Amino acid sequence: MKARVTPAAPAARRRTAGAPARTGAPARTGARARTGGPARTGARARTGAAAVLLAPFFTLFTTVMVVPIGYAVWLSLFTEKQSGLGFGGTETVFSGLDNYLTALGDRAFREGFGVLLGYCLLYIPLLLAGALALALLLDSALARARRFFQLALFLPHAVPGIIAALIWVYLYTPQLSPVVKAMEAGGIGFDFFSPEGALPSVVNIALWEWLGYNMVIFYAALQAIDRSVLEAATVDGAGAWRTALAIKLPLIRASLTMVALFTVIGSLQLFTEPLILNKGTGSAVTSTWTPNMYAYSAAFDRNDYGLAAAASVLLALTAALLSFAVTRFTGRRKGKHA
């Protein structure tokens, strides 16, 4: 007996096979993915939060850095002239690059850069070597009373630069200084205010102020070195000198670069110490001994603010170029050792 097949089943199969697929829900999901949705909202929130947090920094940076530099550049393009053979009033006129040419053509301004060159060649190696040696000594296993020596070496930096210069002027004065009297009693004669002694005198003051500060930076970098690396070097038979030169120094190269960069910038801004030596000591330090002192003299002794601004801009450009050279040099050395 044959089974009867109803036509409804094939028809249902045909309708099922031919029915279009419902794509409404997937389409809505794809649209949400294309528009970003919560991900884009989160990115906007993070961007807004970063802008709010960075706004105080950029406001302060613009106020104390960008605006003064821009004003100095603008001021350097003008000069004041008197009319009527000096009997009339003064007027500010646009002079272009005349102030820059005047500064570069002034022998005193050029000699100031020569003084800075000698100062940097004497001061920077002594500072870096001395601070690094003290930091290595404090980091060694033989060091005792580390806290006391850190504080004792850092205390001179806490003394303001003017006060430090005044203290050393007293110690340099032959009629007052017990140091000079002790040197003379020992047969050592040295004039700290002479043309040959002025530069070493200023270098000595700067070293007294900044040696302990940079020592603390190096010591903190040495303390951050993984002790297991040093222990492994000791197990391999490396002595104290080999460990310091071959392991510790390469691991604190970033701190060395930072200190060298800041020291170069600070050396170009030499002003306070020679200014104190210039006031009433009979020293060979003149009012235009450094470029900073030249700009100060032009502004407040000669009332030539355009020339002072031009000298300041030239000094700032020199500092920027030297900073770039230091970072490029250290970056290349780091790439070679990597």
Features:
single chain; 338 residues; two-stranded antiparallel sheet; 2 strands
Structure explained in plain terms:
The protein has 338 residues and is mainly α. The termini are far apart. Strands 1-2 form a two-stranded antiparallel sheet. It contains 15 helices and two strands. The N terminus is likely disordered.
Low-confidence stretches: 1-33
Number of E strands:
2
In whole angstroms, how far apart are the ends? Answer: 91 Å
Contiguous helical run count: 15
Strands side by side in the biggest sheet: 1-2
Layout of strands and helices, then pairs:
Elements: H1 8-18, H2 24-35, H3 38-75, E1 78-82, E2 90-94, H4 98-105, H5 107-139, H6 146-158, H7 161-172, H8 178-185, H9 198-223, H10 227-235, H11 240-251, H12 253-268, H13 272-278, H14 291-300, H15 305-337
Helix pairs in contact: 3-15, 4-15, 5-9, 5-12, 6-9, 7-13, 10-11, 12-15, 14-15
Question: Can you give me a brief rundown of this structure?
Answer:
It is built from 15 helices and two strands. It has 338 residues and is mainly α.
